[in-house]
Amino acid sequence: MQLDTIGKNIRKYRLMKKFRQEDLAEKAGLTTNYIGMVERGEKIPSLETFIKILNALEVSSDMVLTDVLETGYTVKNSILNEKLAKLAPEDRSKIYEVIDTLLKHSKQIAP
């Protein structure tokens, strides 16, 4: 299990909010050093601390845990579907063509 992705995702959402580590630490009631350790995967926050971080970032747990949970790909797919739905049809078609090409050249698991 790659628990370091939790920290990477926290960092991703922190940067999306244009927060510095200091900003997130202050909003969550934590230290800047602790936020840095979590983002680097050196520490895994307790449930209580994890909730504080999520609330400070205003994101849901499934967004941060998407690469850790087995159902994470379902969440990721739904996020991608939402993004694709906002595109113009011709752009969406180009993206599907790229995906089809990648799938043709990937190591697929036989059914």
Automatic annotation (TrEMBL):
Keyword hit for DNA-binding: yes
Keywords: DNA-binding
One MF term in the entry's GO annotations: DNA-binding transcription factor activity
One Pfam family cited in the UniProt record for this chain: HTH_3
GO CC annotations, alphabetized: cytosol
Domain HTH cro/C1-type positions: 10-64
Protein name: HTH-type transcriptional regulator SinR
